[in-house]
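Notes on consecutive records. When two proteins share a document, each keeps its own sequence and its own C-alpha cell line. Never mix them. Below: protein one.
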Amino acid sequence: LPRFQPEAFAANRRLVERVEEIAREKGATLAQVALAWVAAHGVVPIPGTRRASRLDENAAAADLVLSAEDVRRLAEAVPAAEVSGGRGEPDVPAGTDR
C-alpha cells in the first residue's frame, strides 16, 4: 500500500504528531480525537477492537466534544494535500475485494 511505504509513512507520521499535540491538550488519546472528529462531521463511528481496554477508550470518545475551533485546527494540522501516498493499490479499482 503506497501510504505505508517508508517515505510516505515518515511524512504522514509528522502529520500524526500534530494531531497528537491536540490530543494532549484535550486530555485524550489520538484514537479518541479521531473518533470525535468523525462524530463532529455527523457520522457515527463504529470502531472495532480485540481488547476490552481499547473498547473502553473508544467509548470514552463519545464524551469528547470538539468545538468548531478544534475541528478547524485538526483540518489545518492534516491538510489533505500533505497526506503522502495513495490509499490503496493503483491497479485495483475502488470497491474491489482483494
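Protein two starts on the next line and is unrelated to protein one.
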Amino acid sequence: ATVSKTPTSKYFVSMCCEVDIKQLEESNKYIGIDLGLKDFAIGSNGSIFNNPKWLRKASYRLKLEQRRLSKMKKFSNNWNKQRIKVAKIHERITNQRRDYL
C-alpha cells in the first residue's frame, strides 16, 4: 500500500492486487474516432460527444484567487490559506477532467 497526500491535505491509499483478466468476445464491428477541439470526439457512425470546457468555466474563479494569492506576503498565514484555495480549484478541475475521460 502507498499513502499519498495532496496539496489540499487529502490522503489517498493505493493498493496493489492481482486480478484475473477475462478476454472479450471477438467482434467484426469497427468504428473510427476523431478527437478534436470543438467537439471532444466524433465517431465514424456520426455520434458526437461534446467537449465540456471546465477550465473555461472555472477560469474566472481561478484567476481571481491566484491574483489574491500573488498580492499576499509570502509564507504568511493568510498566504497559506489562499494557497490551499487555489490548490482546491486546480484539484477540482483535474478531477473533472479525469472523471470525464
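For the record: The CA atoms of residues 95 and 101 lie 10 Å apart.
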